[in-house]
Design brief:
The protein is an all-alpha fold. The chain folds into three domains: 115 residues, Cytochrome Bc1 Complex, Chain D, domain 2, CATH 1.10.760.10; 98 residues, Cytochrome c-like domain (Cytochrome Bc1 Complex, Chain D, domain 2, Orthogonal Bundle), CATH 1.10.760; 43 residues. 57% of the residues lie in helices and 0% in strands. The protein has 13 helices and no strands. α8 crosses α11. The longest helix has 34 residues. The protein is elongated, with a radius of gyration of 30 Å. The N and C termini lie far apart (123 Å). Bound molecules: heme C (2 copies).
Length: 276
């Protein structure tokens, strides 16, 4: 009862400050959710206020992790359905969350981030060149246009071309598998995680860089599954053959050298120290 009064108060309030929910949604939710444009990293939030109670939504948006751990059946079911991707916690006030929910209720008017459309894959038409550029941007060999920190300063990937990498944040080797190109691109473009958000706040990553980095993370994810083990065994077979050949040849060379000269050749050919 108290909450619905609060909701009414906030809705009235938020029609005056209509922008707040929209701003918050775009900053901290749009990377993973659309309103009526389909599934992204997380579910489409259209009509969510009809599906779940206000109490549930407030608790879930503040900490989905806490709700999953508490054994809430709906929270656990949706967590499993979305590949066990954790939604980050938010330290918003009830009023801020209500403003976001109000924005969602209004159908996300003005939500026009085109990259959030799951229909068109941003990786259509990427080439090996995009992947290579993405790798250089990731490990800092090439600077980001707007000067943000390189990804490997916080993240790790399983890619032997990259030697130094950070352990501050998650290993991204499998992120593509869970998030898809739309999800990875949305996160890179508009990071919903406070630390990463802060790092790029004044150094936005360009559209082209988003595509290159996403293409790179996709290739890391695919190579990790298919190519890496095969490459490794081929490498060792080749390496073994080369080492064998070198040892074999030097044995032969040494053998023939030894045969050609008498055992005492060295001694006899020394200049004589006897002075007469
Ligand atoms: C990093 C991606 C990510 C961000 C950012 C994110 N979410 Fe989520 N959200 C998810 C995922 C994934 C799920 C599916 C449930 C789960 O895995 O816990 C989810 C589930 C939800 C649900 C439950 C939907 C249902 O059908 O039951 C709501 C509500 C929600 N998010 C609201 C928000 C709001 C509001 C924000 C912004 C403050 C936000 N989310 C930010 C990824 C995210
Ligand atoms: C200042 C540190 C920092 C930098 C720099 C950084 N990130 Fe992140 N990133 C994070 C944090 C923190 C998270 C949240 C997950 C976690 O706790 O590890 C994250 C999460 C992600 C995720 C979601 C991973 C998943 O599987 O849920 C992706 C994708 C990602 N970052 C890509 C990038 C890319 C690409 C770059 C380079 C342009 C980058 N990050 C640079 C700190 C950083």
């Amino acid at each position: 009862m108290k909450l619905s009064l609060l909701l009414i108060a906030v809705i009235t309030f938020s029609t005056v400050f209509a922008g707040e929910g929209e701003d918050l949604f775009k900053q901290r939710c749009a990377a993973c959710h659309t309103i009526g444009k389909g599934r992204l990293v997380g579910p489409d939030l259209k009509n969510i206020t009809e599906k779940q109670s206000l109490d549930w939504l407030l608790a879930f948006i503040k900490s989905s992790t806490a709700m999953i751990n508490s054994g809430d059946a709906d929270a656990k079911a949706i967590f499993e359905e979305y590949n066990r991707i954790l939604m980050p916690d938010n330290n918003y006030s009830d009023a801020q969350i209500l403003a976001i929910l109000d924005y969602i209720k209004q159908g996300g008017a003005g939500e026009g981030t085109s990259a959030a459309s799951p229909a068109a894959d941003i990786l259509n038409g990427v080439t090996a060149e995009n992947i290579a550029t993405g790798a250089r941007l990731f490990d800092g060999a090439q600077r980001l246009t707007n000067g943000g920190p390189f990804c490997a300063s916080c993240h790790k990937v399983r890619d032997e071309r990259i030697f130094s990498s950070g352990t501050l944040a998650k290993d991204l080797s499998q992120s593509y598998e869970a998030l898809g190109s739309a999800g990875v691109a949305a996160i890179v473009k508009n990071p919903p995680f406070p630390v990463m958000h802060e790092a790029y706040r004044n150094h936005p990553i360009t559209e082209e860089e988003v595509i290159n980095l996403t293409a790179y993370l996709k290739s890391v994810n695919e190579e990790r599954i298919y190519q890496r083990p095969a490459n490794f065994s081929m490498f060792f077979v080749f390496f073994g053959a080369v080492v064998f050949f070198i040892i074999f040849m030097s044995t032969i060379i040494l053998y023939f050298k030894r045969k050609k000269l008498a055992v005492n050749h060295d001694i006899l050919s020394r200049p004589s120290k006897v002075v007469n």
